[in-house]
Amino acid sequence: MTNLKLFENKQIRSDWNEEEQEWYFAVVDVVAVLTDSADAKDYWYRMKKREKVSGFDLSTICRKLKLVANEGKKYKTDCATKQGLLRIVQSIPSPKAEPFKQWLAQVGAERIAEIENPELAQTRIID
Fold it and tell me: Which positions fall inside the Bro-N domain (predicted)?
């Protein structure tokens, strides 16, 4: 079931995997939103090449799913879960992605603090 999500008034194609009970999101759509690239597909291609040279293959956290494109046809598209997208966003060297990375760092730090001190988690839940 293909679905559209909106982020900053831009569409992010997504697909629900019933077996895994998980949403998969079109990586090129997220790249387009976070980079303002004229060609998000090319940006994603070059990003995968760069990261592979660095020792991590971003393709390993993606799955090719057939999603509907603008012209109404379905094409195989790299898609990732929320966790995979978080990893991909870390690799985007764009000023537009920086606020999102800062937010991820803050949330991560808060969760680590809650693991170290469970009372913090209880306080957050109460608030």
Answer: 1-119
Q: What is the edge-to-edge ordering of all strands in the sheet holding 10-17?
A: 2-7, 10-17, 22-26, 74-80, 63-68
Where are the strands (E) in the chain, listed by range?
2-7, 10-17, 22-26, 63-68, 74-80
Beta bridge partners of 68: 74
User: What is the reported pLDDT for 10?
Assistant: 75
Q: What is the residue extent of each domain of the chain?
A: 2-92, 97-127
Q: What pTM was estimated for this model as a whole?
A: 0.77
Please write the tens of the pLDDT for every residue from 1-34: 556 665 666 788 989 889 999 899 999 999 998 9
Q: Which residues contact 22 (CB under 8 A, 6 or more apart)?
A: 16, 81, 82
The C-alpha R_g of the chain, in whole angstroms, comes to 17
Contact of 27 with 85, CB cutoff 8 Å:
yes
Residues 6+ apart with CB under 8 A from 5: 11, 12, 13, 14, 25
With H, G, I as helix, E, B as strand and everything else as coil, classify residue 60.
helix
CB 8 within 8 A of CB 74: no
